[in-house]
Amino acid sequence: MTSIELLLDEELEHAVLGEWWRLEDAGIPNQSRHTGVSNRPHVTLLWADAGVASAKLEDVTLPVALRLGAPILFGAGRKGVILARLVVPNRELLELHRAVHAQHSEATGIAPKTLPGAWTPHVTLSRGIPMDQLVAALETLDTRAVLMGEAIAARHWDASTAAITAVA
Q1: Selection from 103, 2, 96 nearest residue 49 by Cα
Q2: Widest CA span of the chain, in angstroms?
Q3: What residue spans define the domains of the chain?
């Protein structure tokens, strides 16, 4: 698995980390428990099985304004739900997303949920929340808060080698 991800400015990253820690304090599964080298708040632009180059991105201008809105949920499988903050799309973010996909059109096994027109930009707070902890998880967050900041960099993540490469 390989991906291209946007990284948040320091203030916005700290706000998201604060939400991870509040979930941890409440005993709820959250991203702070993920100990991998790639673990930090980010927005995934593209996710594929193979063929995503770690070359510098073309036609990409950073920073891009980010507005993290309401909490959103993905899935409801046996492993629980994914809790995230919606990244409210703006023109610049959508153009950047399309440019990344255009540059990596030869990638194989692109996750349909990351394709232009199907992508829901978000920052993950937790994976695997059991349904009986969902209300408690939402109660730990200020669900009315709008977190503002910027995407200041982009990275390539290659899970097969655990390699992280700055690409913008």
Answers
A1: 2
A2: 45
A3: 2-157
Residue 138's SS3 state is: helix
Tell me the backbone φ, ψ of residue 74, rounded to 5 degrees: -125, 140
- Alpha-carbon distance of 87 to 38, in angstroms, equals 20
pTM above 0.85, yes or no: yes
On average, the pLDDT of the chain sits at 95
State in Å, rounded, how far the first CA of the chain is from the last one. 20
pLDDT for position 145: 87
Per-residue pLDDT tens over the stretch 99-119? 999 999 999 999 999 999 999
Is cis: bond before 63, omega within 30 of 0?
Answer: yes
Whether the per-residue pLDDT at 144 is higher than 90: the answer is no
Neighbouring-strand partners of residue 159: none
**SS3 call for 27:** coil
- So what CATH class is 2-157? alpha beta
Task: Give the rounded percent of residues in the chain with a pLDDT score beyond 70.
Answer: 100
CA distance 70 to 117: 20
Return the pLDDT at 86.
98
Q: How many Å apart are CA 27 and CA 113, to the nearest integer?
A: 29
Q: Is the dihedral of CA 72, 61, 109, 41 positive or negative?
A: negative
Say if residues 120 and 135 touch (Cβ distance below 8 Å): no
